[in-house]
Structures are given as structure tokens and as C-alpha cells.
Amino acid sequence: MRTNTPAGRRAPDDRAVDVAALLDEGWRPAPLRQFVLKIRSRCNLACDYCIIYEHADQTWRRQPRAMGPGTLRRTAHRIAEHAASHGLPLVRIVLHGGEPLLAGPEGISRLAGEVRRIVQEAGAEAEFTVQTNGTLLDTRMLETLAEHRVRIGVSLDGDREAHDAHRRTAAGRGSYDQILAGLWRLSGEFRELYAGLLCTVDPASDPVAVYESLLPTRPPVVDFLLPHAHWGARPPAPPGAYGSWLAAVFDRWVGAPHKETSVRVLDELLHTTLGGRSRLDWVGITRTVSVFVEADGSIHQNDTLRTGHDGASASGLDVFRNSFDEVLLHPGFAARQAGERALAEECLRCPELSVCGGGEFGHRYRPDAGYRWPTVYCVDQLLLIGHIRRWLTRSAGQIR
């Protein structure tokens, strides 16, 4: 099959796995189930840590500002084709950017309606989510999203001080008040659309204060994300700072008299520590079943690779020339489904392999050496896992 990697550049992580060897071993890829559509490539905020605009991969500069109607239709037909080929009853569509709600209520209505119609014609249903910075959640936008059953995830980094330290407008003004106004609308009349909050960890902030500041709108889920980094562009705080921060959140979260919200990473780590399987890319041995489609129709891997080098997330494939079945056999995508076969020897010897899983793929990158390395957050993940294990041991002792 064609891999269509750009001239002069190998697929950014093709040293991680040999697809032909995997197939000979009996490995078969799982079908894609989540399709992240970059319907807008620009944003109305200028967050200082943004994975799209502030790292080595500057692909966004070469993208049209919006995904055109023809590209959207072609993408929808490719999704429908994949769903029909694999007998998928449901696919997840994530509207992403940039800031996807810059499309406006009319744009969101058109694209959601068209994608759902095309997927339904193939015998599947499309479940929509939008990941937004929350600044455009006025009543009209929320009514449009409700009409098309689009669930809403919002980025919020804690209280005003913690949030506005990083998530500012291009003019340098904080965005907290504007986002909170939209969140109150969402969590009130439109609560059925509320998918949850996404919060990037900053060890300079108070972990308990940040966690508690996220609770007033009663989010169903909170996702705490590590800042995107790798061995050539290390995290701003020293090793262990992020694990200690999340351990403090864990103590506050697990010590509450009732479960206030799901903290996804903590729920998944508890689950894998007890022998279960994770649904997160950077916890446990998982198979990634998501794919990103840029505004020009090019097919990309996860945004976390964008810290590596310019074009790091690109596959060389696009929806006009390539099916999503071809994506499954691309070396980069195969590496994200290859499990232990794509991990470093150090990870394979680690007693916490089944819980940690090597960490987020993009965080393993070492310049000129590829992705077969432990995550740059190895110390943090082991610290947090150890903390959770000790809590489980104490809890078991109290039960006895």
C-alpha cells in the first residue's frame, strides 16, 4: 500500500514498528472509531503552551483557516466507508481546531447535519463532541449544539489566577471570566451537553485549589493533562513535580465524602492498578483508535507529536487519495496500536508496565532517535502510581 510520506522525510515514528513483521506475527489493527476534524485551524486565544501554535510543528501555518465544504464531504464519506467496511454501529466525531466554534452557529449546523446524514446512509450513527476554549458559548451557539446533539468539552485551567496565567487573548488579557460565563450557561439549561473539563497541569499552582475551583459547575469528568513535552524539549518543571501535583489531587479527590466528579486519569490508573484495562492513550497498554483530519484534508496522528519537529504529526496521507483502512497500516498509526511491541526495553522490564503503558506516545520522543523511549514523564508517572498503590494497601488494611 502507499504510505505517501513527504519527499525527503520518513514517517516521524516509522522506526518504532515494522508493519510487515507485525502482520507476519498475526497482529491485526483495530478499526478507527474516533475522528477528530480540525474544522478551524486558527484560534481566538493565544495560550502560551498550545500544542498547535507554540511547538516545533508549525503545520497550522500551511493550513486553510477553515475546512472547506468539499473537504468536509470527502472526510464524511471516508468515515462512512470505514464504518461500513468494519460494521461499526457508532463512530465518534470530535470537532476541533484551533477553536472550532469560530465556524459560528450556521457553520456548525451545516457540518454536523451533513456529516451525520452521510454516516447514517452507511448504516452507522455519528456521536458528536466539540472541544472548545469556551469563549463562544453564548445562548445561540448552545441552542445550535443542542439541536444537533453535540456534547461540549471545555478547557479551563483552574481559578482565575491559574487559568489566566496561560490562557490569554492575543492582546494579553485573561479569558477566565468569559469562559466561566459560558460554562454556567452550559451547566445550567444545557447540562445534557456538558462533556467535561480539560485542565493542563501547572505545578506552580496549588493542586487542591485548582481541583476545587473546577467543581462549582459540576463537570461530569475532569481531564488533567500533562504539558506536552519530550526528551528534546523537556517539561518546564523538574521530574516528580507533576506526579506530586497529581498525587495531591488524588488525595483530595479520593478523600471526599462522595464522588464529586470523575477525574479520568485517576479513575483509569486505579482501574489498571487493580488489573483492568485503560481507555486512555497514556495509561496502560492501549490501542489508539483515533485519527486527526486537518482543515486541508490531510491525515495526521495525535497532536501530542507536534512537539517533536515540523511535520511530526503528518502521515503523508489525505482523505482525497487514501482510505482510513490505509491509515491503519501506516507505520506511525500501527505503532500506536502495537502495544508492547512499540515500547522501549526499559519499559518492558518495568514492573509497572501494565499500569503505565509507557506513557503518552508523543512524550517518548528523543530527537534523532525516535519514539522507542520511556515517556519524559516516567518519574512522575511512577511516583503517582506508587502513591495510588500505597493508598490501596492502606484502604485494604482498613477494610480487614
Write the layout of secondary structure elements.
Blueprint: H1 19-24, E1 34-38, H2 69-86, E2 90-96, H3 104-121, E3 125-132, H4 139-147, E4 150-155, H5 160-164, H6 176-187, E5 194-200, H7 207-213, E6 221-225, H8 241-254, E7 262-263, H9 264-273, E8 290-293, E9 298-300, E10 314-318, H10 324-328, H11 331-335, H12 345-348, H13 353-356, H14 378-399
Parallel strand pairs: 1-2, 1-8, 2-3, 3-4, 4-5, 5-6, 6-7
Antiparallel strand pairs: 8-9, 9-10
In short:
The chain is of the alpha/beta class. It contains 14 helices and ten strands.
Explain what the structure shows.
By secondary structure, the chain is an alpha/beta fold. Helices cover 35% and strands 13% of the residues. The chain has 14 helices and ten strands. It has helices spanning 19-24, 69-86, 104-121, 139-147, 160-164, 176-187, 207-213, 241-254, 264-273, 324-328, 331-335, 345-348, 353-356, 378-399; strands at 34-38, 90-96, 125-132, 150-155, 194-200, 221-225, 262-263, 290-293, 298-300, 314-318. The protein has a ten-stranded mixed beta sheet. α2 links the parallel β1 (34-38) and β2. α2 (69-86) packs parallel to α3 and α3 packs parallel to α4. The longest helix has 22 residues, at 378-399. It is globular, with a radius of gyration of 21 Å. Residues 1-15 have low confidence and may be disordered.
Features:
single chain, 400 residues, alpha/beta, 10-stranded mixed sheet, globular
Biggest β-sheet: count, sense, barrel? 10 strands, mixed
Radius of gyration: 21 Å
Structural class: alpha/beta
Proportion of beta-strand residues: 5-15%
Count the strands? 10
* Mean pLDDT, all residues: 92
The run of helices and strands is HEHEHEHEHHEHEHEHEEEHHHHH
